[in-house]
Amino acid sequence: MSTHLGAEPGQIAPTVLMPGDPLRAQWIAETFLDDVECYSRVRGMLGFTGTWQGHRVSVQGSGMGQPSLAIYATELFTSYDVRTVVRVGSCGALTEDVGLRDLVIATGACTDSSMNRIRFHGYDYAPVADLDLVVAARDAARAREGLVVHTGLVLSGDSFYHPRPELTAPMVAHGVLAVEMEASALYTLAAAHGRRALAVCTVSDHVVTGVELSSEDRERSFAPMVEVALAAAARDGG
Q: Torsions phi, psi of 141, nearest 5?
């Protein structure tokens, strides 16, 4: 039993969807999964296991930011032998080519965090997603009529309210599509433990134009993202 999850052995599936918000984890489990059981309420970071089209799947909240996600991802990999984690969350568009409600599949995650520089003794490690998961998610997204999907780099920021937003400009010039707060740590930890990871994010706001979705619009817009993530994980053998 892990420190922060507290689940019994066997309660967590080999495939886990990971939103930041624990209440979104509950919404995903209750909306998309059958035969759902809650395996953790430790610190209010809810976790659930159920089935989706015959595949056993868990949904685990991670909290906001890389340090919080790193706690839960590490325990999923080391204490429960989870093989695949797909982050499902929101992101902010950094380029006018990406619009509200679009889906961003993160092939790799740049970061302003020091976590990887500490881990790699000052070297710049390039955290990337599992290629099979990327392809499966892209194919699932393209099969959905009306869903606009982008595949490319994201920026995993340590600050939600960044004091110097202009610093993202060089990232955009080098192809970064959107900003979020967790993917870089997830990809690094998956690589360290020989597991598979992917981040699939819905654009909830636009850093360039300032427009954003309401809370109601976010919930409606997140359903396609969850369905894409489930389809990708299932095709990947989860």
A: -70, -40
- How many whole angstroms separate alpha carbon 10 and alpha carbon 28? 21
Non-local CB neighbours of 122 within 8 Å, separated by 6+ positions:
none
Summarised one tens digit per residue, pLDDT across range 108-131 is: 999 999 999 999 999 999 999 999
Give the model confidence (pLDDT) of 135-174 as tens digits. 999 999 999 999 999 999 999 999 888 888 888 999 999 9
Burial 32-42 (b: 16+ CB within 10 A, else e): bbeebeebbee
The pTM score is 0.95
Token representation of residue 176: 């970064």
Q: Is 97 a catalytic residue?
A: no
Read off the amino acid at residue 225. Answer: M
**At which residue do the structure tokens 């965090």 appear?**
113
DSSP state of 19: -
Residue 46 C-beta-side C-alpha neighbours within 13 Å:
16
The type of residue at 176 is V
Q: Could you give the CA distance from residue 12 to residue 14 in angstroms, rounded to a whole number?
A: 7
CB-based burial, 183-219: b 16+ in 10 Å, e otherwise:
bbbbbbbbbebebbbbbbbbbbbbbeeeeebeeeebe
Asked whether 190 and 85 are in contact (CB, 8 A), the reply is yes
Residues 6+ apart with CB under 8 A from 214: none
Catalytic residue among 21, 112, 132, 205: 205
